[in-house]
Write a structure and sequence with these properties.
The complex is a heterodimer.
Chain A: H1 2-12, H2 25-53, H3 55-59, E1 62-63, E2 66-67, H4 68-98
Antiparallel strand pairs in A: 1-2
Helix pairs in contact in A: 2-4
Chain B: H1 2-6, H2 8-14, H3 18-39, H4 45-50, H5 57-68, H6 71-84, H7 89-105, H8 107-113, H9 118-125, H10 129-162, H11 166-216, H12 221-227, H13 230-240, H14 255-269, H15 273-276, H16 285-303, H17 306-321, H18 326-330, H19 333-340, E1 344-346, E2 368-370, H20 374-382, H21 387-425, H22 431-454, H23 460-474, H24 476-484, H25 490-511, H26 513-516, H27 536-552, H28 559-568, H29 574-584
Classes of the chains: A mainly alpha, B mainly alpha.
Chain lengths: ~100, ~600
């Protein structure tokens, strides 16, 4: 994932026009919204989808000794939540630098 | 703490029992908290309200975790899950998933905005002191109901472990918490909360690791759920005694209710003033994002252990008591001790001399009835752990309750002293006057909280359960729309806030009419299938709908507000605000910089 990321960065750098004084605010915000939307899809999938909407079918599937739905409901989703925030912080720091709007 | 554990063998030789250890650890930790307050004493509003915006992301993460994890998380969570089984997910998901919402949608922007309180943001963004006032009242309402719940935790810990009178215990504990806030403001509160987090997580993990070792031989309780068959064994054990399978979903709530409660708790979390205001204290917007990650990581250490502890404790309890002769059960020391508190009752209902546990642990039909709170508190004794661990659990439970109470006191104090007194009524108040008011308000709030703790009105427990719904229906939508909908104006935000808040309050009152208004029965039991703890979700949806509709048929917000929103969206310069605020003092800050056009 890290390599793919740096590839994207190299590719998009020319588009920002290398003018940190006048960053493309609209594009920065669009990219931020896209990232947020993607992460919320995962957020929804591991909690509301896997642990609640699909709870009954996923009870038949097991992880280790445990029904998969139960694991998502009581542990799995929480682990993913933590990762989601760190991924967001990391990707946003990159995006901030790319558009020259870092703090 | 170090010094007390190094003298452990001496006390053991002296034959010091459980209460002595509790006493030593409770008094010891209280002294540490108090010392921090003395060291951190503050004299200017920036330090008092936002700890000078100098708190490192990790420390703020720990402080948020302690602020957030109240006596309910520490004492009640594992017990509740134990009772609810699969459906305990409402708390596990609801009280963690909110941090994703908070980190992605709120924390970095609030930090970039960089003032002092949540009503500040709402008042400035919607160029309206009416919006500010309503937000301040919502803050007070949410915080006050929340703090009343903390007092029960303090009461249980102090009476059970120290045997002191609950009234005296609450007065001493709240007095101390208030003093920390008065002396050191947000700065002292932040650092004590970070220490309190350490105390509470140490206590919780020691207990869980120990019982995990006892039952599965695995020292990593978080993993035991997947690597051992303990969950399925408990599920079978429950099925054998007609208690219902533990791992089967939707036994206690309908699927729709589980969905709605989890979602309400999530967006309520992202709208709780005492939690989100903590993100003003970090140096920059990127620190705010990172800090939310640390906060959830620290919270997850407890939240990943709690479901395991819930299973272990219940398994242990059923195995120990079910099928045991009543006389033998009554002679077990921890059964005796908890029976005395009234939180555990053993009754031989069918008179056969043997205990049959059926239909769950809280059902009155069962021969064993227990309060969910004793699951965590009794575990060290049930698992035969050393007295010092029991003392540590007492100190941990107290740390959880006090850290949350402290965060709530400063939230209420800033809403009154900064938003209502200074921004609305006395815009010419000096720095000194405002700090005096802030400190007095902390004391008044503590007195009110102590009163509610000592004389809990019948409906406090009900209201605490819906504090999240109220936060979700009132504060969350205007904050979110304030950042993400540039077109949102004051008419839309205020209308949405009032509709969401009043709908939720009215529903809750109707649903608790038996406790609140003295009716025989609640006037309404469900709305669209939702009960009082999740009806706030409907309130939040109404808030959004009304705000969006009204804003589109009323004038757009002024040009400078649109610029403010653009500026909030960029992290650039957020670190500088900290520098100006710290160095430049208050003349350039406060309300003057962003105008009030109300």
């Amino acid at each position: 994932m890290g390599e793919a990321e740096s590839a994207t960065e190299t590719r998009t750098e020319p588009e920002t026009d290398a003018a940190p004084a006048q960053p493309d605010v609209k594009e920065y915000w669009r990219r931020n919204l896209r990232l947020i939307a993607g992460l919320f899809v995962v957020w929804f999938a591991v909690s509301f989808l896997a642990a609640i909407i699909l709870a009954e079918p996923l009870t038949a599937v097991t992880i280790g000794e445990l029904p998969l739905a139960f694991w998502f409901a009581q542990q799995g989703a929480i682990i993913v939540f933590v990762l989601l925030i760190f991924v967001y912080a990391w990707r946003m720091n990159k995006l901030d630098r790319e558009f020259g709007v870092e703090d | 703490m170090l010094s007390t554990s190094s003298v452990a063998p001496i006390f053991a030789q002296l034959g010091l029992g459980v209460n002595t250890w509790s006493l030593i650890l409770i008094v010891g930790t209280l002294l540490i908290y108090f010392t921090i307050a003395i060291v951190m004493h503050v004299a200017d509003p920036d330090d008092f309200y936002v700890a000078g915006r100098t708190i490192p992301a990790t420390v703020n993460g720990a402080a948020v975790a302690a602020d957030w994890m109240s006596a309910a998380s520490f004492i009640s969570l594992a017990g509740l899950i134990s009772i609810l089984g699969f459906d305990g997910a409402i708390y596990l998901l609801g009280w963690t998933g909110g941090y994703v919402v908070l980190a992605l949608l709120i924390a970095p922007y609030l930090r970039k905005y960089g003032q002092y309180t949540i009503p500040d943001f709402i008042g400035d963004r919607y160029y309206s002191n009416t919006a500010r006032g309503v937000a301040a009242l919502a803050t007070l309402f949410v915080s006050l109901t929340y703090i009343a719940g903390q007092m029960r935790g303090v009461g249980i810990v102090l009476s059970r472990f120290l045997g002191v009178n609950i009234t005296l215990g609450i007065i001493v504990a709240l007095g101390l918490v208030a003093l920390i806030g008065v002396i050191g403001g947000m700065k002292a509160i932040t650092w004590t909360q970070a220490v309190q987090y350490t105390v509470l997580i140490t206590a919780f993990l020691i207990v869980t690791v120990a019982i995990s070792l006892n039952l599965t031989g695995n020292p990593f309780p978080q993993a035991a759920l997947v690597t051992s068959d303990i969950a399925t064994r408990l599920s079978q054990l429950q099925a054998d005694i007609q208690m219902g399978r533990y791992i089967v979903p939707f036994r206690e709530y309908t699927q729709w209710q589980v969905f709605a409660i989890a979602l309400t708790l999530m967006i309520g979390t992202a709208g709780l003033p005492h939690v989100i205001m903590r993100f003003y204290t970090v140096p920059s917007a990127s620190d705010a994002r990172l800090s939310a990650g640390y906060a959830l990581f620290f919270i997850a250490l407890l939240y990943l252990s709690a479901p395991v502890l819930a299973i272990f404790a219940k398994f242990n309890l059923i195995q120990t008591l079910n099928g045991t002769p009543v006389s033998q059960a009554r002679s077990i020391p921890w059964v005796q001790r908890w029976s005395e508190t009234g939180l555990l009752t053993i009754q031989d209902k069918n008179g056969d001399g043997v205990i049959q546990m059926t239909q769950g642990l809280t059902s009155q039909a069962s021969e064993v009835v227990l309060d969910p709170d004793i699951i965590v508190l009794s575990t060290p004794e049930v698992a035969g752990l050393a007295p010092i661990v029991i003392g540590l659990v007492a100190a941990g439970g107290l740390a959880a309750a006090l850290s949350t109470a402290d965060g709530l006191l400063i939230a209420m104090s800033s809403a009154v002293s900064h938003d209502i007194y200074y921004k609305i009524f006395r815009q010419d108040a000096t720095e000194r006057e405002r700090l005096i008011v802030a400190r007095i308000v902390i004391l008044i709030a503590a007195v009110v909280a102590a009163y509610l703790g000592i004389n809990p009105p019948g409906f406090v427990a009900e209201v605490v359960a819906i504090a999240f719904g109220i936060a979700a229906a009132s504060l969350f939508p205007p904050i979110l729309l304030g950042v993400f909908d540039q077109r949102m104006n004051k008419e839309g935000a205020i209308a949405g806030l009032l509709v969401g808040l009043s709908f939720t309050l009215i529903m809750v009152i109707l649903m608790t009419a038996d406790a609140v208004l003295g009716f025989q029965e609640p006037i309404v039991t469900t709305f669209l299938g939702l009960e009082k703890q999740s009806v706030g979700l409907i309130g939040a949806v109404l808030n959004f709908a009304v705000a969006l509709t009204v804003s589109r048929v009323t004038p757009a917000p002024p040009e400078e507000i649109a610029e403010m929103v653009e500026e909030i969206r960029l992290p650039r310069g957020s670190a500088d605000v900290a520098t100006t605020a710290v160095d430049g003092g208050f003349e350039t800050d406060g309300g003057e910089r962003r105008r009030e056009t109300n």
